[in-house]
Amino acid sequence: MKRLKEFFGLILSDLLKLSRMKSVYIGLAVMLFITVIFALAQSALGNLIEDMATSGTESAPPLAAEDVTSVFMFSLLNGAPASTGVFFLIPIIAALFVGTDFSSGMFRLYAGRGVHKNDLYISKFVVITLLTVVYVCIAFAMGAAAAGIADMSESARSYMFSYTAQAFGSYLLLSLVTAAICTFVCFLLRSKAGAMAMLLAMLIVLGDILVTVVQIALAMTVTGTDVTGNFVYMYFDPYYCADAFAYARDLTPQTAGIAYGGSVMWLVLFFTGGLLLNAKRDIK
Amino acid sequence: MCKKDIAVATHGITKIYGGIKRVDDVSLSVRKGEIYGLIGRNGAGKTTLIRMILGIAAPSSGSVELFGETAPKALAEVRRRTGALIEQPAFYPRLSAEGNLKAYCLAVGLRSADIPALLKLAGFEDTGKKQVRNFSLGMKQRLAIAMAMAGEPDLLFLDEPVNGLDPTGIFQVRELIRRLNEERGVTVVISSHLLGELGRVATAYGVMREGRLIKEVRGEELASLSRPRIRVVVADRERAAAAFAKRYAAGEYVMRENVIDIFAPAEKLAETGVWLMNEGVPVLQLSAERGDLETAFIDML
Fold this sequence. Notes:
The complex is a heterodimer of chains A (284) and B (301). Chain A has 12 helices and no strands. By secondary structure, chain A is mostly helical. Chain B has 301 residues and is α/β, with parallel strands linked by helices. Chain B folds into 2 domains: 3-223, Rossmann fold; 228-300, Alpha-Beta Plaits (2-Layer Sandwich). Helices cover 36% and strands 27% of the residues of chain B. In chain B, the strands form 3 sheets. Chain B has a 6-stranded mixed sheet with strand order 6-7-8-4-9-10, with helices on both faces. In chain B, strands 1, 2, 3 and 5 form a 4-stranded antiparallel sheet that branches. The two termini of chain B are 27 Å apart. Chains A and B meet through helix 1 and helix 6 of A and helix 2, strand 6 and helix 3 of B.
């Protein structure tokens, strides 16, 4: 009980520190800005299509403005965290958040006062997860607000919202994976700039590289077998569950299992790997 | 010395970084209620030793004992009652002094710590919301000391505690250490290059050289180190060395380049002058000095 109380104090301390970080609020402003830009772009596009349809030009596309709005809003709402850049913002904030504790010497001070190294690690993981979940919720709230005021039929709107719970669940899982990766890399590199660069590079290319390597390996070892329909290699993309939403319309138990199973695997690997690494190393 | 009187002990503690022994087989003991000065040149291993005692770095071999405890869990508990200022002052640059103290106390399980009292102790009653990154070096140092004092620790580790402080700040820290030690019996371990400053508060010393603890000095031995001396500056070192070797035993004088300290009272000054003249040793300066620890330790280092 005492240990739990002390750990809770550590989390409160981290939350206090996080609440004073400017980058957290800048991140929110960026998300809001992107949502507004998307909403305005969609509105302008809808107006353009309507104008073209009413002017009767031959080049007018055979699309109804509402169809465009539906597709656009579907992506904006159900892919809100991706559309608003949440998973690019979180690595930056996490690197600043954890890196400061290394560069300022606070970890040293805490460990010298008997705080266990793994408590420091878990606390950072919990707080980064909370921050990511809050960002994801805000992204969905902004997406929902934009979708709520968009010019759409009720049937299109209800169709769009029918996928939101599944998309939200996918992104919550991705929040955990992202927090595990961010915590791992920040503790591994112990540098703000290094962790930031590494995390962004991982987000952009790691999944593709791993998947490509495994695809090549599979094609080479399973010569003559058709692997085009086999998505098992997607296990090797830590960020795959973010794409699960894209498959939401035709998510089979197999693809869902791969997407979510792969994410859970990466979550466990990064989290336990980070804890083991942290326990073995001296504090900087 | 009874085991229960020991606050800090290390037993053959060694730390190897990159194949080099940074701390080599150090066994020191700090008694309860002592102010223990850990001295040594840069790179002597003082900070690494403190880091191992505090559990920030794991020893390559050997063990640490704090208030008789050696088991990891028990050591962690004792460390909860240990304040520390290690290497440079640590703080969150974008938080105020109060914010830093709050964050620190929450993190180390000192929710009931008296933060206004700590702010007063560090002289930060009027800094308000000023961010610590805008503090002077001395202010940062005072904040770090206030953090170390949080929770009224039984044991304090201060690594270069007066770095960057002005003379008033140095005086305040010195008096604070003395007061905590005398009034509350806090055991203090201080690592410092300022031997003169250390000499004013420390009651025992550990001298480190190249990762090894070469000497621990306390009590009568310490008093004997600060005995009065006659200082002679000579022009001809070789001739002086030969003359001194004939007259004095090895421990009765120390020779550094052209400066020779003879451990003798001021009354012997005239007699020494006459003797040097008779020996034909050209003397550039001859003076009686009050004994000081600083010189004694420089001789050891």
